[in-house]
Every structure is written in C-alpha cells, then in structure tokens.
Amino acid sequence: MNVSLNNIDATKGIVKLEIVKADYADRVEKNLRSFRQKANVPGFRKGMVPMGMVKKMYGKHVLVEEVNKLVSESLFNYIRENKVNILGEPLPNETEQKEINFDTQEEFEFCFDVALAPEIKIELSKNDKVPFYQVNIDDEMVNKQVEAYQANFGNYDQVEDVQEKDLIKGRVAELENGTPKEGGLVVENAVLMPMYIKDEAEKAKFLSAGKNAVVVFNPNKAYEGAEAELASFLKVDKEVAAGITADFSFEIQEITRHKNAELNQELFDKVFGEGVVSSEEEFKNKIREALAEQFTPQSDYKFLVDARELLVEKAGELAFADDLLKRWLLVANEKNTKEKLDEDYPKIVEDLKYHLIKETLVKGNGLKVEDADIEDFAKRVAKAQFAQYGMLSVPEDVLANYSKDILKNKQTLQNIIDRAVEEKLAGWLKEQVELDVKEVSADEFNKLFEA
Predict the structure, then answer these.
(1) Which value, in Å, is the radius of gyration of the alpha carbons in the chain?
(2) 324 contact partners, CB below 8 Å, separation of at least 6
(3) What tens digit of pLDDT does each residue of 244-257 get?
(4) pLDDT grade, residue 152 (50/70/90)?
(5) pTM score, two decimals?
(6) Structurally, how many domains does the chain consist of?
(7) Beta strands 12-19 and 2-7, pairing class
(8) Which of 4, 221, 243, 395 fits a 20 to 30 Å CA distance from 138?
C-alpha cells in the first residue's frame, strides 16, 4: 500500500491511498472463513458450505467491508505516525476521487481532503504586560465569614416568647364569627416564621406572643400575593388557597430560636479540625487564607482571558481552509445549516485560533497534565464544594473518595483535565510576562465578569 500527502497550499492537502490486492486479500479470506463457519444454508451442515458458494454469497460484502476498514486504519495511522496536524476529520475528496467498482477492480485509489492546522510561533518576554487581579480579603469579608460559621454551627433553643426570626409551631383552625368553624380547615403542626409574613399588621400579632397563646390572624393578608406560601402553610392546593379569606386561630405550642455558636475553641475545632487553630486571631487568619484560596482559580481564569488578546496578537494572521472547515462542520453536526454556519463561522474561527494557540503553548513547553495533577485538582474541587457548606476540615480519606466519585463521570473528568491544563498554562504564562497586579475588592472582582 502507498499512502501520500499532497499539500495543495499551507491550509489543506489531499491524502491519497493506493491499495493493491495483496493489502486486503488475507483479511478478506479470513472473514469469509468466519462466514463459512456461521452460515446456515439449506442442504448443508453448519460449517460445511462450499467456499465457492460462500464467496458468491458474501464475497462482495466482505470485500467492501475489509477495504473500508483498511482505508480507515491506514488513513489515521498515516496522520498519526507522520504527525500531520489536521483540523476536524478527513473528508472524501470531491474532485480527484476516481469511481470505485468492487465488481471489476482489484486495485483501488482513495482520496481524502484534510484541513491543515497553521504553524504558530509565539515569543513572550517581560516587556509584555498582562493584568492580574488579586482580591483583597478585607476584615469585613472575614467577619462575615465568621458570622456565617457561627450561624452554621449554632443550635436551636426552646423559648417562651416570639421574636421575628423564631420558628413557631402549633395548631391552626379556621374561624367563623370569631369561633372555630364547624367542618372548617384545621392544620396540626403548622409552622410559621414571623419574618416571612408580608403584612406588618399581621406580623405584629405574633411578636411578643407567648407559648400557649392563641393568635387570631388572617393568612390571606399575611401571605398576600404569595399563593404558594399560603398553600404550603395551610397544606392545601394553590387553587384552594386562593379562595381562603377567613381569619384563623394559631395556638402556639412551640417557639424555637436559633442561637449562633460562641466564638470559642469548640467552633474553631468544628470549622478547621481539632487543635488547628487556638485563638480568634488564628481563626480569622485561617479564614483569610481559605477565602484567598477560593479566589485563586478565578484570578487565573481572568488572567487567561486578559492574556488571550496578547497571545492572538503575537500569533499574527492565521490562515484556514475555510471551505473545507465549513464542509466538515456541516457533516459533524447535522443540526447545522449553511446559513447558520455562515453566520457563526467568524466566532468559530476566532475560538479555533485561540484553542490552537493554547494547544501550541502547552505542547511546545511540555506542560503535561499527569494523573496526579488530575487527582489533586479533583480533590480541590471536592474541597471547594464542601467549603460552600462550611465544612473546611474534611478528612483526607473523605476528600479522596469523593474526588474519585467525581472523576467517574466522563464529562466531569474532561472538564477537570481541561481546567488542570489551563492552570498549568496560566502558571507558565505568569513566569513569561510582566504581571500588572491590581488589588480589588470582591465586589469589584465579580463585576469584571459581568460584561
């Protein structure tokens, strides 16, 4: 077999495969023998059908199948072994491909169009300046996080009188002329929080009421415009709730109040693990470190976004085989239409350029992502997820097991690989260019992503 690449220009070429009988004869013969072993032909025992009959029945089918498999294998082996950097997939050539006749031919020629990736050269130096945003973890942020931990690790006490944020539990009964309505709606173990009552006059009826008190109020007014909340409170459908306008009594049976955890060693141990910090100052410093760590991936991401313009400029004009790429995009996505593709193509090429630039920098500078990098990144993802729920002292074995579960999902695994690659690229780029460090508040940093 002879396989060759004819470069039409810098953007595209034609891969030609010339196949002779010796290339496929053994494969066809082996496949036919397999057919003979399985064939069920009346008048013959299984496996005893004459080979001549098998060839007559299945010969052309097997020939087409084996030649096509040989073409596919040889085409991609050639591309891989010769390191031909193509875009998309090879496509059957529409001009030089000769007609194939499997009935009469023993030698075949196949031609495939390939779009070639442009050669990219980028040189960076400390004369190149790129913004790098560092979030200032101020005392206000730290104190808010302290308060959040105090709330998360707080407890609930039973109290005797109602305040706005308390949880009230009791028996609710529909009234008629100030007394319980015969056959009226009754809800046992109803739950209510005064802070969620919209009408201030209705809310006031509960504030300072004591345990065992009976409060007369109007749920329709209390939850005005919020049928879903009213329906949930009265445990009825929204359609039923919309027609309820009567007063109700609420017999208060329990009043539960949340109490924040004390800022002491017990809280420190719950948040960061036993003995990790031993004072309020150490606790706040540890929180400051954790908050800064949470912003690091976002800072790197913003850095890469800002570096993109510089890298694209350094790469210069890149030429593509637009006609061939459009052909491939139409084939690759059956939902594409020519009109939609023409509209989207400029953005597709823009993203393709940057993808190739990143790929060139990663490969050219040996920025490999190993299994250990992927596992480490997955652990950090797991750690960040636990941190969202205030769990900062998750044991290593729990993190390891959780991260393994994360990596079982193929899409999640690919996302983590991509992010780990970008992290390596960001680290390498920061060493090549001059960082224009800008210290910003968390609000200012978040606004950078709103454009």
Answers:
(1) 36
(2) 11, 12, 88, 91, 113, 114, 115
(3) 899 999 999 999 99
(4) confident
(5) 0.71
(6) 3
(7) antiparallel
(8) 395
